[in-house]
Amino acid sequence: MRVVALALPLILAGCMFGGDDRPAPAPIRPRASGPVTLNGPTPRETQQCFADLSREHVRYSGLPDRDFGGGCVVTGAVQLLDIGVPVTGLKSMKCGLARNFTAWVRFAVAPAARQMLGSDLVKVETYGTYSCRGIIGNAAASAARMSEHGLANAVDVSGFVLADGRRITIERDWRTGDQQVRAFLETIHGSACKRFATVLSPDYNAAHYNHLHLDMGRGPFCR
Ligand SMILES: [Zn+2]
């Protein structure tokens, strides 16, 4: 119990600020000379992930490994270009996140829209992926408690557009009285919890009132 009690705040710190677009994060001093491109070998796991994306007919471009300073380091990342459904706001994503996000959209969100709401999913809206954010306060702990967004290992999903013109947003519809929409959101949230390490919804805290934070960092944590 003691171990769990100690470990949990660390997990939450990473998520709290990762998904939180509201309170101003601690300023991170960018490297004065700009990002540094890293030239290490591509790990086998990353190569396998790129191959998985290609096999799944995902269009993407690989991005160079970069150290932005302040603990924000992005390695093994891609820019998703076409996963079958348009997605707004995506910037660089670590490949494993991109792979799981693509599978979630294709095999959870799209089928749930069709089966539960009777209309095809035509767009996913996000507030983005990479963002070099730290945490408020303790600078010494900032590296260990870096937001997963600072590693391009998180995405904030804000809404879904259907072929019939309906737009479902986390902000407006998370606690809607519409039972079908509620069931849809519960289903895709539950699926996200099986596919990502950490999932934070409006049920987690007020900072997440308008999006689902999905990341491949520490976990499992599903709220
Ligand atoms: Zn987030």
TrEMBL record:
InterPro entries: Extensin-like_C (IPR009683). Residues 47-223 form the Extensin-like C-terminal domain. It comes from the Bacteria. It holds the Pfam family Extensin-like_C. This is Extensin-like C-terminal domain-containing protein. It comes from Sphingomonas kyeonggiensis.
